[in-house]
């Protein structure tokens, strides 16, 4: 892998710092002739806030995807791609579900998603990572404040902020079942965190993240004029969020799960290099080695019937 300057250093045993983002948020523009593309207003909202919520956008996909994920839970039992909650054997996350499901693979290339992704990134994209977050009732534990890009940069070698996460709500996401909390506008700043990354840190962090978590003083600065927004909606709601958006979620204290299917799209012009931690790359299910540009799939039927 080619060497490249580290313009976003983090976990280098230095003092935690907050600095401006050095890259655009939206690389593309309005594309009126491209179906399922974003309007100027939607692009402006994403650029300003760092996330975009499309309420009840794909409700017809919820039932078939939930059935497929139920199958995967059984078929993938014992696989390394499955992670449990930090204090129980409850399933927390299924990584790389697209590799085990034709439906999920094709859904990741649905033009209603992929055309918007290409528009935001201003290029073709590949699927860097995918997961199902279960957040089981009563036992689903929190995710602390963090920027995904900070981890992907340090541990996977993503050089620049040119990636977008897209996720579909598979259950209603309410104020009570551990919804995603975001800090609108926080993606315009980068937090260089304290600490040093140990080998195979992911084995711990995917259950309970400790590194790449900003200190309270830094969070106070980020929150000072922005506040916290909760991302809630009905099953079938589609969400786009920038790779550097500061986000987290509380425990699920309700009697229903808060489950989502998530895809991370990286620009083909932003392929990972040697991890900036200096450690070996993380496993294939965290940083997909297949970096071929995705092609849209016009129909998911009969797979979704």
TrEMBL record:
<protein>
    <submittedName>
        <fullName>Phytanoyl-CoA dioxygenase</fullName>
    </submittedName>
</protein>
<dbReference type="Pfam" id="PF05721">
    <property type="entry name" value="PhyH"/>
</dbReference>
<keyword id="KW-0223">Dioxygenase</keyword>
<keyword id="KW-0560">Oxidoreductase</keyword>
<dbReference type="GO" id="GO:0051213">
    <property type="term" value="F:dioxygenase activity"/>
</dbReference>
<dbReference type="InterPro" id="IPR008775">
    <property type="entry name" value="Phytyl_CoA_dOase-like"/>
</dbReference>
């Amino acid at each position: 892998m080619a060497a490249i300057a580290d313009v976003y250093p983090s976990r280098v045993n230095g003092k935690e710092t907050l600095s401006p983002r050095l890259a655009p948020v939206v690389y593309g523009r309005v594309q009126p002739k491209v179906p399922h593309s974003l309007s100027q207003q939607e692009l402006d909202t994403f650029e300003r806030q760092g996330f975009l919520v499309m309420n009840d956008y794909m409700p017809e996909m919820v039932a078939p995807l939930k059935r497929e994920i139920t199958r995967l839970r059984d078929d993938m039992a014992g696989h390394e791609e499955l992670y449990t909650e930090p204090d129980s054997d409850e399933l927390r996350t299924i990584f790389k579900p697209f590799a085990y499901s034709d439906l999920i693979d094709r859904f990741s290339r649905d033009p209603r998603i992929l055309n918007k992704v290409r528009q935001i990134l201003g290029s073709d994209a590949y699927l860097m990572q995918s997961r199902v977050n279960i957040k089981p009732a009563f036992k689903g534990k929190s995710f602390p404040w963090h920027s995904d890009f900070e981890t992907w940069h340090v541990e996977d070698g993503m050089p620049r902020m040119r990636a977008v996460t897209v996720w579909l709500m598979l259950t209603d996401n309410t104020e009570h079942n551990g919804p995603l909390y975001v800090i609108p506008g926080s993606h315009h700043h980068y937090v260089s965190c304290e600490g040093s990354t140990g080998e195979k840190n992911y084995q711990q962090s995917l259950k309970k993240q400790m590194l790449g978590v900003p200190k309270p003083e830094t969070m106070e600065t980020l929150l000072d004029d922005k506040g916290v927004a909760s991302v809630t909606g009905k099953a079938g709601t589609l969400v786009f969020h920038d790779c550097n958006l500061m986000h987290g979620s509380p425990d699920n204290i309700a009697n229903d799960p808060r489950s989502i299917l998530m895809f991370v799209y990286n620009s083909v012009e932003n392929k990972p290099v040697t991890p900036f931690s200096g450690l070996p790359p993380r496993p294939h299910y965290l940083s997909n080695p297949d970096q071929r540009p995705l092609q849209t799939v016009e129909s998911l039927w009969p797979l979704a019937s």
